[in-house]
Amino acid sequence: MSSPVAVPKSALYGGQSGRRITVRDVAAAKERGEKWPMVTAYDAMTARVFDEAGIPVLLVGDSAAMVVYGYDSTLPVSVDDLMPLTAAVVRGSSRAMVVADLPFGSYQASPQQALETAVRFMKEAGAHAVKLEGGRRVLPQVEALVSAGIPVMAHLGLTPQSVNAFGGYRVQGRGQAGDELMADAKDLQAAGAFSVVLECVPAELAERVTTSLAIPTIGIGAGPSTDAQVLVWQDLMGLTARPAKFVKKYSDLAGEMDRAVRAFADEVTGGVFPSAEHTYH
Ligand SMILES: Nc1nc(=O)c2c([nH]1)NC[C@@H]1CN(c3ccc(C(=O)N[C@@H](CCC(=O)O)C(=O)O)cc3)CN21
Ligand SMILES: CC(C)C(=O)C(=O)O
Ligand SMILES: [Mg+2]
């Protein structure tokens, strides 16, 4: 039997406020030095499970392109694809802040385009904040959204919508590029972003960015020093075939689902299911 490990729990993670987590709660957690978890969600039932577990922030990621829709990158997914998933996550949760990831092509063209897209996610899907990828190249977009009262989560490092420009999913921010990323992070904070995701960057860079910023950093493949950590839920649950190095598997849902569906199939073919207890008369 394994001995229980004492896990320090933050007031943000598992908070019992009875209302939604807000950007103010997220800011206060950094001031208190409390780390918190974020996970993706794409439907109401998983959102409810994560919400009831006390996860303070749920991200409806454009990773839905890959884990929900089966594309091999995040580029093909549209606003219309993500809108119903976002609405479902909002309906399935009551305490988490729900962040809508703006998909490729829905905000890059102009601040006006970014505002129109973000307003749809807030108004029609009920999202509480939006996320977009990029640094100084999207500052006008960030400023337009913040001016409209829309909380913006930024995203630096391995920004998957730029996978074709990077030539693959590779670590970002090594050497000189680290100084560029630091400058992007500071400018995003100055533009009013309430948090910034750091994806696939050296831990030392993520630590420097985290201590240099007043807003929280959310790491994925960015080492242990960021204020928060995010994973795609299918990765941490063991549903993903070949997860990245930064993924830790906390469950083997693929194995469990395989076992369960084979058991059902065997009982159907063997005439065992349904028995009397699952039958109406
Ligand atoms: N299921 C899932 N999980 C994710 O974390 C995720 C997505 N999908 N889709 C969108 C992006 C793509 N992401 C990825 C995908 C692959 C690697 C990857 O294979 N990385 C290499 C590192 C290569 C290097 O060392 O430069 C690895 O071996 O982990 C990283 C991030 C993260 N995001
Ligand atoms: C992995 C997170 C940060 C993301 O952007 C997504 O799931 O789309
Ligand atoms: Mg994303």
UniProtKB/TrEMBL annotation:
CDD domains: KPHMT-like. 3-methyl-2-oxobutanoate binds at residues 62-63, 101, 131. Mg(2+) binds at residues 62, 101, 133. It catalyses: (6R)-5,10-methylene-5,6,7,8-tetrahydrofolate + 3-methyl-2-oxobutanoate + H2O = 2-dehydropantoate + (6S)-5,6,7,8-tetrahydrofolate. Binds 1 Mg(2+) ion per subunit. SUPFAM superfamilies: Phosphoenolpyruvate/pyruvate domain. Keywords: Cytoplasm, Magnesium, Metal-binding, Pantothenate biosynthesis, Transferase. The active site is at 199 (proton acceptor). Its EC number is 2.1.2.11. It is an enzyme of class 2 (transferase). PANTHER family: 3-METHYL-2-OXOBUTANOATE HYDROXYMETHYLTRANSFERASE. Catalyzes the reversible reaction in which hydroxymethyl group from 5,10-methylenetetrahydrofolate is transferred onto alpha-ketoisovalerate to form ketopantoate. Homodecamer; pentamer of dimers. Belongs to the PanB family. This is 3-methyl-2-oxobutanoate hydroxymethyltransferase.
